[in-house]
Amino acid sequence: MKMIFTRLGCFSVAVFLCLSSNVTQAQPAADRSWSNDPRVQSRSYVFTNTGEILPYAVFVSTKVAKEKPAPLIVALRGYGGNPGVFMHEPALKLAEDGGYIMVAPMGYNSGGNFGNPAGAMGNFGRRNGGAPNAPATNQPPRSPEAASDLSKITEYSEQDVMNVLGMIRKEFNIDSHRIYLVGHSQGGAGALHIADKYSTIWAGVAGLAPGAPGFQLDANAKFKDVAVLIMVGEKDGLIGSVQALNERMKSLNIAHEYKELPGLDHGGIIMGGMPNVFEFFSQHTKPAP
Fold it and tell me: How far apart are CA 186 and CA 112, in angstroms?
């Protein structure tokens, strides 16, 4: 499958703040727990566009203190996944040791593509291992409006991410120079899309086996101020598309780091790649304007 990405515009922090206003106060808990680890908070909030309650998960290191700005990682699940996909060891240990807050939005529903304009991803990401904790079938569109218009799912999925980011930044003392984005498969493509569109926010982005069929990445990508890591498992059946992305980025002189990890398949790259992701993020801080 050929891997390419869309040409994207760079939105300002003002746009981010506008998106973040489309929420009401966070609810104390979601309807279910997204992790077996008691340190993971399962939360929800009212998505005012549709009046629906959307879930998200939060982990806060015990090293986080009000008086000291904390680094933040936003984690985006793959197709069919949920906010619990990244809320496991070794990610939690690495977040604890590094003093991170880690938050995982749903992305509106389990098939929402985080703003990528290609529409629904079909069964992409459920092949060759899929994502842990994914339901047997994709969650259907939540609202009648979204059910009849896949572009609404795309819009709502991206907005959900930005809403949750805004709530976390309001609740905690977040280091604005150390906000990171990681995603797997569909979420990996979504992470690259969001990091590019809102490039003024992120210090680094990691795409794990990122997938975005039908998209064009060109020289106008706004990654110049965002550290980019692309990783894939050597046993991933979709490795060719990720290799194509790597070559495309090199041909456009888009600075990035690329790794192929031995012994890992499409699902295994999630936790198997976490040490690399945290090491990469620790090496990059957003420069002052």
Answer: 9
| Residues of the domain holding 238 | 13-282
Alpha-carbon distance of 148 to 156, in angstroms, equals 14
Beta bridge partners of 23: 47
Please give the tally of structural domains in the chain.
1
Gap between the Cα atoms of 183 and 50, Å rounded: 25
- The helix/strand/coil state of 248 is helix
CA-to-CA distance for 88 and 168, rounded, in angstroms?
A: 20
Residue 75: which residues within 8 A CB-CB, separation 6 or more?
Answer: 85, 86, 91, 102, 103, 104, 182, 183, 187
State pLDDT tens for residues 108-162.
999 999 998 754 443 333 333 334 333 333 454 567 666 557 889 999 999 999 9
* CATH number of the domain to which 267 belongs: 3.40.50.1820
228-265 tens-digit pLDDT: 999 999 999 999 999 999 999 999 889 999 999 999 99
Is 102 domain-assigned? yes
Question: Contact at 8 Å (CB) between 42 and 34?
Answer: yes
Q: Is residue 287 part of a domain?
A: no
Question: Interhelix angle for 274-282 vs 91-98, to 10°?
Answer: 20
Q: What is the pTM of this model?
A: 0.83
Residue 288 lies in a domain: no
Non-local CB neighbours of 271 within 8 Å, separated by 6+ positions: 88, 89, 90, 91, 132
